[in-house]
Amino acid sequence: MEIIDKTKEDWKPGDVLKKGTSFALVVEGLDSCFFLMNITPNDTGTFSLNEGNHWGVDANLKYLKNFHNEWHKVKAKLVIE
């Protein structure tokens, strides 16, 4: 059995995170602030990029991670068809 300490994982823009049934993408905005963009698919298999559809905003990615410590990285692949 492998024990993984998820408190030591580093986040960077482009990482996909999961909390329960929700998914988020770590994004750096134009103002150099980081936030978690909601990419949880809805009932049609798409997601919304409407304003306010994100969690947290911080200029320091480490502080954002510490505040949202219930989120953890998952393996993800971008598929373009």
Give your account of this protein's structure:
The protein has 81 residues and is mainly β. It has 1 helix and 5 strands; from the N terminus they run E-E-E-E-H-E. A 5-stranded antiparallel sheet has the order 4-3-2-1-5, with helices on one face. A hairpin with a 5-residue loop joins strand 2 and strand 3 (34-38). The N and C termini lie far apart (37 Å).
Backbone CA Rg:
13 Å
Largest sheet: 5 strands, antiparallel
Which structural category fits the helices and strands? mainly beta
- Report low-confidence residues grouped into runs of 5 or more: none
Summarize the structure.
This protein is mainly beta. The protein contains one helix and five strands. It is globular, with a radius of gyration of 13 Å.
What is the topological layout?
Elements: E1 16-19, E2 22-28, E3 34-38, E4 54-58, H1 61-67, E5 72-73
Antiparallel strand pairs: 1-2, 1-5, 2-3, 3-4
Q: What features would you highlight for this structure?
A:
about 80 residues, mainly beta, 5-stranded antiparallel β-sheet, 1 helix, about 10% helix
